[in-house]
């Protein structure tokens, strides 16, 4: 990084590219203070800021790698920037300041990606992205009937930027990345032509900058910065994780699916803890231990499955329901976040209240990791679980570390991941026990072995359907999350919107080319078609699990790449085709490793797919062997069972890929 | 007004009440600059501001009645305030400034009213009100299906603050009024407990302040400031203005209604200019002259009607359609607003384009007033018309006075009113010819003899139905608009939402106690029930016109009060009951003059109404003679035909009011 004084300010450049250009006439650094309004309703936020002052810091004084900024010459500095390696350290000398705006120099034709796990727009240029972990939203499109209804009913509609996993980090097509080291509410605004504006509702620790000659090296760098995941467990390669929540009845249903030729790696029963009945239908009982009424002799069942080479997975989240036995223990021990008066804060999750385990309290972390995840889950025989939630820390609770919950809210998903990873490590199961999370934030990479794309609607909709899962995988992958997957068939079924067999099949076709295949019955199993209820769906799914298993050797090699270099399994086309700018905005197809290009059909009633094939290679269509020169868009037949998948002619695994058409 | 220096700033008080309290620690005056985004779609606006700087002007220097404000001591002033009589003059010495925020001291329990013609909330405390003339919106409630659909279809849903007639003026329960002398986009934010924040997207000319010992005197003062209307024409007292747009068929339909006992003052045919067919259905032909194909021998028909004591009204708006003969004349003469290249700017009104007559061009005003309104309308025999639109000035056109259209947009309704008034005056018809407008802004009072409440939906909805008309009358009335009325039965019928006979009857019951009764067939006459299509509705309506006519002597006296003192015909209860704070938030009943209290039924399927009767009087129920002591809320039967109406016991017109129950 290079700091240079200019006539009325300074410029800061990284590998010769100007990042900051601050002058009296066109300032890049603004500070101020505001009063925010944040209303939360079951993980959905209504947030508004009242900016009382926002002003450029016009006067600059430079001393070595230190920049003092003040309102005007002769006035005392209000903000001090210090260059430390490739980061800008911020220090506010005016305690009143709680807002910072920084303008990063931008090119007209620049593209930006990242922002955590973004579900609607992979290329973020031209839009504004608040970065605050929350429920993803239903429909996520204010112009859709679905989102309108969800908003009116529960304020739960969401929008293009709502995500379980935000992260104040972006990768620029100008071959650099920028990360804001803060957990405060922040906004990336990419709507301006000549600059990106970064807004933080605090004075952040640092802004870190990364540059590299290639996107691949840039991703490697980010992955070492944020932490790497262990390899995929060996058992995962055996087939799909089958999600059933049908009590004891789940086992015979699994057998029928196996007899139908489904390759199975694990059975996942989120209802292993039992159910409670609410007006919304049956919900899980939020007290984390096996429920032997719903699953008689579960311990033995798990052992039996294990012998037949199938693992058993469960479910956990960071809350404890007030009517469960664990609540009393945690309450007595003071493990919960409290209200203003020191009493356990209760959060309403819809007809039942819960305590929030305070993960800033070491004793509470120890207890949750050892007593709950360690003993009740791992020792009981679970090989993994959905580590749900993490985006719900209420902003009005009091925490034992004394930090404002508004500043801990974004940090929570990472703390939650750490609790899970710690428990797994305590049993030496890292790389074998597999938990998966939808929530995330900076640093979750280090602790969470697998992301899942959250709760899509059971449809093909643009902002909440099948297609959004690719966007989530590509954006989070660039920031060092190597492993991503999703609920096959989607999750959220509301207002009469239900799955079609077609959706289930298209989703399975996509999932076969991701790190993990996992099915989900959805939030309304009875109203939505299930894998084992339609022979066509079942045989199609069985074949996809065979395809997944067939590709295991290749997937293993990608897992090795992930461990060694931090490269994601699912990659944007441009990652390996940097010189082909045509690839920069593509978000509905992806590279599965360097050698396979996958273009799932993500709309209903499609018989073919239009695909752009990157320049400079020949691409072989797996189902027909037909090969195409890259650098052009082609239209290819993609009936059910034959998603548009290509491999790079001449790549190492050519024979493996060529054999796919025999399956 | 009194200006006093304080330790680090100053205070400004009006009749002993502190209005401004500006100090270093808690500043009241902020300036800055921003870049707004304003997108217009057929009169609906999507507006967003990007505030680049907003800062308090902390350093104050006072010299007599002059306050210089700068960022800090030793720095040159950026804004100068000068006290001139009871106004604060603003002068920016920094040309970069285009935003001003002023905090007016507020009390916890203060109420504020006005803001032009507000349709949703009479008491504006607790909410934020952008002041920008626009389409009112359909449903005006983002949580309603109606508004959602209108937004998706045409961005036309609106919200609680969207109005045809905004005005940056409010009346405070602390017995003062404040007016911002600007046509720029502005916002009144009444959400804070200790201050009201006034935001202006320009440095305004002045902020004017008014104080008085009583609300009545305050309203009188505002009315002299903004201008007074002529008395109601004598012919209006004869009965209702019947709106029909059925071509020649309108005349026999009128006869049938008269035979049914309807008292008629005028026939209003907005289709007097003829129709055009579009996919939205038939629209008026926007070329302002009689269409003798649709209305054969119209001139003679008008004369005949006149002999039988009935006037004829038409329709006009400030646009000319490209396919009409008048367009060519105006285009040749250069009377239209232009695009950047000097060509006539064309505005799409839905399958037809129009030119916008440039009312900043004296010659264009002359021509429109003399050739169109003068010759084609008044000389032709029209006694009035709907002077529609005025809120549609596109913000990207160029005007002959060289002023930015963004600054002329809010000014347009008043210019439009002036053109109409000028034409009327040129024929010495002021006080006889009656035009009515929905659009307005500061100063419209002086030129527009009658407001109409705009395009309500044909329903009982909270934010776009019958009840909103009262809010419109009360808010605009406080600011010197003495005469208000509405489309009986509402106007907008969309997405299958149609009138019920009940709605028509409830609306007529309310209208009988307003300055003018006027019916409207609505935007979809064939799909919505009409007055002459239902015997019950027709006889109910006939009776209401007789009630209206019976009250004519009283209404005449109110018109005299309006001319002499500027008091509105419809008044908030508190206007005459200042000491009864219970009345301060009431917006669903009103005083009709000082002596009659009207509480219309504004919801469906109601048999009675809850009414608050002001303290210190006895109130006589007109239909039963039963009298009630004020100072309490009562519940009273209010079946169809018997709206909750009371008169003040012992008032001058007691016998007149008592006789109502004989009708």
Automatic annotation (TrEMBL), chains A, B:
Residues 256-557 form the Glycoside hydrolase family 31 TIM barrel domain. Residues 566-650 form the Glycosyl hydrolase family 31 C-terminal domain. GO terms for molecular function: carbohydrate binding; hydrolase activity, hydrolyzing O-glycosyl compounds. CDD domains: GH31_glucosidase_YihQ (cd06594), GH31_N (cd14752). It comes from the Bacteria. It holds the Pfam family Glyco_hydro_31_2nd. Keywords: Glycosidase, Hydrolase. One of its GO terms (biological process) is carbohydrate metabolic process. Gene3D superfamilies: Glycosidases (3.20.20.80), glycosyl hydrolase (family 31) (2.60.40.1760), Golgi alpha-mannosidase II (2.60.40.1180). InterPro entries: Gal_mutarotase_sf_dom (IPR011013), GH (IPR017853), Glyco_hydro_31_C (IPR048395), Glyco_hydro_31_TIM (IPR000322), Glyco_hydro_b (IPR013780), Sulfoquinovosidase_GH31 (IPR052990), YihQ_TIM-like (IPR044112). Belongs to the glycosyl hydrolase 31 family. This is Alpha-glucosidase. It comes from Agrobacterium bohemicum.
């Amino acid at each position: 990084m290079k700091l240079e004084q200019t006539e009325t300010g300074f410029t800061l450049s990284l590998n010769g590219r100007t990042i900051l250009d601050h002058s009296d006439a066109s300032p890049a650094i603004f500070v101020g203070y505001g009063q925010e309004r944040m209303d939360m309703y079951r993980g959905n936020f209504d947030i508004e800021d009242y900016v009382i002052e926002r002003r450029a810091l016009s006067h600059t004084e430079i001393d070595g790698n230190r920049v003092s900024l003040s309102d005007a010459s002769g006035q005392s500095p209000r903000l001090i920037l210090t260059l430390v390696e490739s980061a800008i350290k911020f220090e506010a000398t005016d305690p009143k300041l709680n807002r910072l705006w920084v303008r990063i120099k931008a090119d007209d034709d620049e593209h930006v990606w990242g922002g955590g796990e973004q579900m609607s727009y992979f290329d973020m240029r031209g839009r504004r992205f608040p970065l605050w972990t929350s429920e993803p939203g239903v429909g996520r499109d204010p112009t859709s009937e679905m989102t309108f209804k969800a908003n009116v009913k529960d304020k739960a509609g969401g929008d293009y930027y709502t995500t379980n996993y935000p992260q104040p980090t972006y990768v620029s097509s100008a071959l650099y990345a920028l990360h804001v080291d803060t957990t405060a509410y922040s906004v990336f605004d990419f709507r301006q032509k000549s600059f990106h504006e970064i807004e933080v509702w605090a004075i952040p620790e640092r802004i870190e900058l990364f540059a590299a000659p290639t996107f691949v090296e840039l991703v490697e760098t980010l992955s070492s910065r944020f932490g790497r995941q262990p390899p995929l467990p060996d058992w995962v390669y055996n087939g799909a994780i089958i999600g059933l929540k049908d009590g004891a009845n789940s086992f015979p249903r699994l057998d029928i699916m196996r007899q139908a030729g489904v390759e199975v790696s694990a059975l996942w029963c989120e209802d292993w803890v039992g159910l409670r009945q609410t007006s919304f239908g049956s919900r899980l009982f939020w007290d984390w231990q096996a429920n032997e009424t719903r699953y008689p002799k579960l311990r033995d069942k798990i052992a039996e499955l294990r012998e037949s080479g199938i693992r058993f997975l469960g479910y956990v989240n960071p809350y404890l329901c007030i009517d469960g036995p664990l609540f009393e223990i945690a309450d007595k021990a003071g493990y919960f976040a409290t209200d203003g008066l020191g009493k356990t804060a209760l959060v309403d999750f819809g007809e039942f209240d819960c305590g929030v385990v305070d993960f800033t309290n070491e004793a509470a972390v120890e207890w949750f990791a050892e007593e709950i995840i360690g003993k009740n889950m791992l020792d009981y025989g679970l090989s993994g679980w959905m580590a749900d939630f993490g985006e719900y820390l209420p902003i009005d609770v009091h925490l034992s570390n004394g930090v404002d919950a508004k500043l801990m809210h974004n940090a929570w998903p990472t703390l939650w991941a750490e609790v899970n990873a710690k428990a797994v490590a305590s049993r030496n199961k890292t790389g074998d026990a597999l938990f998966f999370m939808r929530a995330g934030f900076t640093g979750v990479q280090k602790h969470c072995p697998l992301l899942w794309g959250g709760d899509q609607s059971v449809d093909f909709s643009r902002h909440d359907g099948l297609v959004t899962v690719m966007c989530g995988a590509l954006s989070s992958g660039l920031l060092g999350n190597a492993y991503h997957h999703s609920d096959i068939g989607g999750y959220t079924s509301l207002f009469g919107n239900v799955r079609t067999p077609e959706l289930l099949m298209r989703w399975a076709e996509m999932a076969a080319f991701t790190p993990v295949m996992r099915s989900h019955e959805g939030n309304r199993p009875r109203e939505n078609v299930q894998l084992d209820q339609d022979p066509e769906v079942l045989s199609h799914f069985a074949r996809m699990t065979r395809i997944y298993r067939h590709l295991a050797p290749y997937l293993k090699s990608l897992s090795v790449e992930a461990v060694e270099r931090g490269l994601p399994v699912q990659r944007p086309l441009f990652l390996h085709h940097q010189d082909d700018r045509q690839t920069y905005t593509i978000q509905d197809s992806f590279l599965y490793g360097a050698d396979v290009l996958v273009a799932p059909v993500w709309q209903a009633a499609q018989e073919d797919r239009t695909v752009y094939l990157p320049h400079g290679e020949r691409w072989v269509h797996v189902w027909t062997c037909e090969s195409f020169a890259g650098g052009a868009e082609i239209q290819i037949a993609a009936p059910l069972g034959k998603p548009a998948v290509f491999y790079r002619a001449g790549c190492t695994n050519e024979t493996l890929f060529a054999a796919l058409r025999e399956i």
